[in-house]
Design goal:
The structure is a homotetramer. By secondary structure, the first copy, chain A, is of the alpha/beta class. Chain A contains eight helices and 13 strands. In chain A, a hairpin with a 2-residue loop joins strand 12 (276-279) and strand 13. In chain A, helix 3 (102-112) runs parallel beside helix 8. The radius of gyration of chain A is 21 Å and the shape is globular. The A-B interface holds A 17-22, 24-25, 27-28, 33-39, 41, 242 and B 17-22, 24-25, 27-29, 33-39, 41, 242.
Chain lengths: 287, 287, 287, 287
Amino acid sequence: MTPPTTIIALMFGPDQPGLVATVSRWIFENGGNIIHADQHRDAEELIFFQRVEWSHADADDQELRRQAALFRAAAEALGMAVQITLSTDRPRIAVMVTKADHCFHDLALRWRAGELPCDLVCVISNHDDLRPAVQTYDGIAFHHVPKSKANKPAAEAEELAILQRHRVDLVVLARYMQVLTPDFLAKSGPVINIHHSFLPAFAGANPYRQAHARGVKLIGATAHYVTPELDEGPIIHQAVDDVSHRHDVTDLRRKGANLEKVVLSTAVLLHLQCRVLAYGRKTVTFD
Amino acid sequence: MTPPTTIIALMFGPDQPGLVATVSRWIFENGGNIIHADQHRDAEELIFFQRVEWSHADADDQELRRQAALFRAAAEALGMAVQITLSTDRPRIAVMVTKADHCFHDLALRWRAGELPCDLVCVISNHDDLRPAVQTYDGIAFHHVPKSKANKPAAEAEELAILQRHRVDLVVLARYMQVLTPDFLAKSGPVINIHHSFLPAFAGANPYRQAHARGVKLIGATAHYVTPELDEGPIIHQAVDDVSHRHDVTDLRRKGANLEKVVLSTAVLLHLQCRVLAYGRKTVTFD
Amino acid sequence: MTPPTTIIALMFGPDQPGLVATVSRWIFENGGNIIHADQHRDAEELIFFQRVEWSHADADDQELRRQAALFRAAAEALGMAVQITLSTDRPRIAVMVTKADHCFHDLALRWRAGELPCDLVCVISNHDDLRPAVQTYDGIAFHHVPKSKANKPAAEAEELAILQRHRVDLVVLARYMQVLTPDFLAKSGPVINIHHSFLPAFAGANPYRQAHARGVKLIGATAHYVTPELDEGPIIHQAVDDVSHRHDVTDLRRKGANLEKVVLSTAVLLHLQCRVLAYGRKTVTFD
Amino acid sequence: MTPPTTIIALMFGPDQPGLVATVSRWIFENGGNIIHADQHRDAEELIFFQRVEWSHADADDQELRRQAALFRAAAEALGMAVQITLSTDRPRIAVMVTKADHCFHDLALRWRAGELPCDLVCVISNHDDLRPAVQTYDGIAFHHVPKSKANKPAAEAEELAILQRHRVDLVVLARYMQVLTPDFLAKSGPVINIHHSFLPAFAGANPYRQAHARGVKLIGATAHYVTPELDEGPIIHQAVDDVSHRHDVTDLRRKGANLEKVVLSTAVLLHLQCRVLAYGRKTVTFD
C-alpha cells in the first residue's frame, strides 16, 4: 500500500502563545490529518520552530498544492518564514566534485537504489577526471568547468547557468576543492558541503594532516550548509571514529572517507525530507 | 529565573483523525501554553502516542492540579490511557541492590547533585554489605531483607511493606541479583532494571563470560522495565563499547560497569522526565 | 617513496617461555628488520598468538620467498600453525551476492580506489539481476549459478569449479542469501559473511524485523568467518547505530545497510592485511 | 591464583635495526619471560617506542628490582629513555579540584573498588567546599589552598610542599579551574587534566556554551598531560556524545560530565598501567 501524499511545512518565527494549537486547528479545520508534528522553542532567542506533515483524504495533487498555498499564507500571517513541499516532490540535485570520487559514488548509488528522494541531474567538476565514473549512471549529465584564479567569475557564471538549465534545487559539494564566492551562493540556492574534520576543529586545508600532527584520538566529518564564511556554516550532521598512534595520515584519510560518505548522505537525506531548518549559525534538525 | 511549573501528560490510545488538533486546542482554550509536544503513530498497530507539556500563566499549584485532572478526563474521553504529573513533582525512588555498588553510587551522586528530579528515599538489599556505603548519603534509609528460596514470599511481602511505608513511586534494580515474582511486580509499581548485556544477546546469568566465550567485538548494557518474563521487558536505553581479544573477563566487567552506570541513570532520568511510554514489549521514548 | 616489501607471518600455537625472543632473534640473525610485531597470550587456554612483519634490505622477491619458507619451517618446528605472505601479494577474491547490491558496490569501489589490496576477480550470484551492475567494473567476471533445493549439490560443484578456475583465495558473502554446505566450506577456503544484526542477537532470518518487534535502541552488523554452524562463526568486526521508535523496518534496513557496508569492508581489509587469526569460535584481530 | 609480579618498561628512542630482537633476547637471557610486548615506529620521525612486560619465575621483589635496574642500564645504553616499574607498585596520586565533584567521586569510587591500582592519598582544592565529600572516603587527606592572582606563587609553593610531603607520583586535575605555572609543572611530576571539550575545538573557557552557540551535533571530552601551553598538552583519551537542538547548555553540561568522568578515569588507568608515552605534542597509547 502506497502511503498517502503528504504536505510538509517547515517554518520558524517569533514565539507566541497558542502557536501549536493555531497551526493544528487550521489543518484540522481545512480537512487535513496531521501525520507528524515536531516543534522546538529556542528559549534564549524566543524563536519557534515547527515541522508539520499532514494528509488530506481523497485530495489530488492540485488540491494538495492549493492547500499548501493556503497554509503558507496563513503561516506567513503569523509571522513565520515557511518552506513547504509535497512528499512526492523530487528536488533536483547537482553534485560538484574535483577528483575524489567516493562521496559522489556513495550519493549516486543511494540515489539509484531509491534511498534518496531526488533527481540527481548533473555533476559539475573543475577537472575532467570523473567523467567516465559519472557516465556509468544513466541520467546524470557531466559538466567540466575548469577553474583558475583568473577565470573564476566566468567559471561561476557558467556553473550558475548549468544549475539554471537543469533547474537545480540543491547543490551538494562532494569534496569540491574550490571556495565558492558570496555572489555564487546568493544565486545558487542551498549548498551542502562535507568538511573532512570535526568542525570547528581543524578548519581549513589538510585536516587529516593537522589531526595527525596534534595526535587526536578521534577524527570526524561535518556536513554543513555553505555560507560566505568558510567552514562556518550551520552544521547539519557530524560523526567521529577512533584513531590511534598506529594510524598514519593515509589511514586517517581512509577512515575519514568512510565518515564523509555516511555524514554527507545523511545530511542530504535530512534536507530532502525537509527536516533541517537553518537559522543564524545553527540548524534545528527534526530527525 | 526559575522556569514555570509545567503539566506533563503522557498518553496513548487508538489513532483517530484530528487528535493533535483536539489536544492542542483543548490546552489553548483552557488557558495553557504548550512548551513541548511530541507524538508518534505506530503505523502497523494504529496506536497514537503523545507527550505534551504546557504551562498556565499565574496558576498556583492547586490550579495546575485542577487543570491536570480536567485534562485527564478529556483525554480518557478520547480513549487515551494517560499519565500526568507536574514538573515540580518529585517521584520517590527505592533502589534495590545486592553487593555491587557502582550503580548505586552513580544514582546517589547524581541524585545528590540535583541531576535526578526525585527523592531517593531508601535502599533495599538482600545482603548487609552496602549499609555503610548507603549511610554516607544523608536521607537514604537502608533495609536489609535477606532472601532465600524458602523465605522468598515472606521477603517480598516485607519489601512491599517497605515500599508502601516509603510511598515509593519507582523501584530501580541497580544490579539486584534476585528474580522478582509476578506477584511482587503486580504490587510494586514500575521497576527499572539494568541488564549487563546488549539484550537480547546474552540474556541470563554471566553475560560477560558468555560475551568473552563468543568473542564479540562489542559489549553492551540494557535498561528495561521489568515484566514477569525475565530479560524480556520493554527496553528503555542501550549502549555499547568496543572490546578486543586483549580484554579478559575482568576487563569486560570493568568496561561493562561503566556502561551500566550511564545506561541505568539515563533510563531513570528519562522515566523521571515522563519521556517513556511502555506498551507491549516496546517503549516509545520521547527524548 | 615506496615502502619496502615485507614478509608477514601470522601464527599461533602452545605458549612456551621465550617465544617472542626466539622469533625476533631468528629474524634478526637471518638479516631481517622487524617493522611491526604484535602478540597475544590466551591466559586461559595457554595459546600464544603472533603477527610479525619484517623487511630485508636489498632482497628481491625470490630471496624474500626463500626467507618466508625458512621462517615457516622454523615456526612449525616450534609447534606453531603459520600463515605467511608478502606485502606485495594480492589475494584473489570472489564475491557472492543475491539481489542486494550495496555491499558489492562498496567492495568494488574500494577495490577500484586501491583501498583493498586484492584482485576482485569474479562475482557469483544465484540470480542474474546484478550482472549489469558488475559489468560497469572492468575486470570482474559475473557468473550466474541458480540454486534450488533440488540442484544445490550441482550448483555448489559449479561454484567450486568457478573458484578454482579463478584461483580464488577468499570468498566474500556480500548479502548472499543461501546457506553453504559444510562440504562447500571444506573446499572453498576462507569465507567471510556479513550478518545484518549484532550477533548473537537476532541470528537467523529477518533480523531487522526481529529488532523492530523487540524494540531495541541499537541495531548492529557483524562480519564473521563462515563455519558449518550457521551464524556461529568467529566474529571479525561489529558495529552498531542508534534507532528509536521513530524508525520503521524500512529505516532499520537503510541504517543497517550503512553498517553492513562499513563492517564488511573493514573485515575484508583486516583479513587482507593478515590481521585476523581465527581459532575455535573466536578471532584474535591485530588492528 | 595471583598473577606473577611483572616488570614493565616503557621506552622510546632513535629507531635502529634489531631493537625488538635485542630487547627480547636481553630479557630471555636474563631469565625473564615476556608476557606482553608492544612497539611502534614513528616512520616520519624515525622514533622507536616499546612497552614490554615480563616476569621472572621464583624471583622476589628485591631480585625483580635488581633486574629492572639492569634492564634500565641496558636500554639507556641503546639510547632509549626508559620508565620502569613493577606491577605491584602503587603510584601515589593527588587530585586537585575546585567545586565540581563528579570527577573526584568517580575517581575515588573506582580507587576504593580496586579498579585503579594506586594510592589516592590527598585532595587539594582552592575552595573548602568539597571537604565533607572527601572525608567520606577513608584515607584521603583534604588540603585547602586558596588561590588568587596575588598569592599564586605562595599557593603553588604550598601545593608543591603538600605533594612532596605525600610523596605524590601523579597529579590529576579533576575539574581544577586554575592554570598551573610552568614552574609548578617543572617540579610537580606528571599532571593529567580533563578538558570539557573535544580538543582542539573549543579550547579555553566555557566550552559547552561555545559548543551550543556553534550548534555542533557532538560534544566531547579530552584527557591530556598538562604542559605550559594551555590545552595543548599531549592527548591521552577522548570521547564524544550526540547532542541536538533539543539540548540546552545545562543538558550539554550534564552529558559532558558523564563524558568527563569516563574519559578522565580511562586516562588515569592507562597512565597507571604504564601504557602512555608522551613525546612532543602527542602520545603513544599502548592499549
